[in-house]
Design a protein that fits this description.
heterodimer; A: 127 residues; mainly beta; seven-stranded mixed sheet; B: 111 residues; three-stranded antiparallel sheet
Chain lengths: 127, 111
């Protein structure tokens, strides 16, 4: 059974860097794409970024200038750094596995869904 | 890139059927048959309940079904049960902006 677990500080000061790590068990990180998704209190979900074990990345354009995502295959982990945080970055941060889009038939695509999620890590931004 | 549009709330009595819409554009929902749906109970992580518009992961109740027409996807819950009370989110890839966009979310209340 695939399991994901977020870890990292629950409190970050404004203007500092938010750092989280996701540990994957039950599957090799050298498969699929691995993602960060966040949810501000009482609000909806926002996709942040994804990474492949090779280091290939994609970012939400609205956050791209402040986000770094990395993978450590030896530890089966991937990490998120979000720089210069403000109160607007306070949220529950989830890591999730993405089955990527692939050609599955003549002119057809399959995939592009988040099938396993971590339990979430609440990050508060306050001095 | 705007979030996909969902009704803020939908309610129904036990045993009834309800449908949640998810409206996007030809650049996301209308682009591929790759819409997914997630159920989220309070304080819990989202759970995948529909992928590729109509497919259910193993273990997901047959009461959940999905469809799509043009730029609007829909999730139908049949035989509504108390345990279905949760928030529901749709999601689609938007290739023009190379990002995944979620819906605004719908709170389902079982009366």
């Amino acid at each position: 059974q695939v399991q994901l677990q977020e870890s990292g500080p629950g409190l970050v000061k404004p203007s500092e860097t938010l750092s989280l790590t996701c540990t994957v068990s039950g599957d090799s990180i050298s498969n699929y794409y691995w993602n960060w998704i966040r949810q501000p209190p009482g609000r909806g979900l926002e996709w942040i970024a994804k990474i492949y074990y090779s280091g290939s990345t994609n970012f939400n354009p609205s956050l791209k200038s402040r986000v770094t995502i990395s993978v450590d295959t030896s530890k089966n982990q991937f990490s998120l750094n979000l720089r210069s945080v403000t109160a607007a970055d306070a949220a529950v941060y989830y890591c999730a596995r993405l089955t990527p889009r692939y050609v599955c038939g003549s002119g057809s695509y399959c995939g592009d869904y988040f099938d396993y999620w971590g339990q979430g890590s609440l990050v508060t931004v306050s001095s | 890139q705007s979030a996909l549009t969902q009704p803020a709330s939908v309610s129904g009595s036990p045993g009834q059927s309800i449908t949640i819409s998810c409206t996007g554009t030809s650049s996301d929902v209308g682009n591929y048959n790759l819409v997914s749906w997630y159920q989220q109970h309070p304080g819990k992580a989202p759970v995948l309940i529909i992928y590729e518009v109509t497919k259910r992961p193993s273990g997901i109740s047959l009461r959940f079904s999905g469809s799509k027409s043009g730029n609007t996807a829909s999730l139908t819950i049949s035989g509504l049960q108390a345990e279905d009370e949760a928030d529901y989110y749709c999601c689609s890839y938007a290739p023009g902006n190379s990002l995944y966009v979620f819906g605004t979310g719908t709170k389902v209340t079982v009366l």
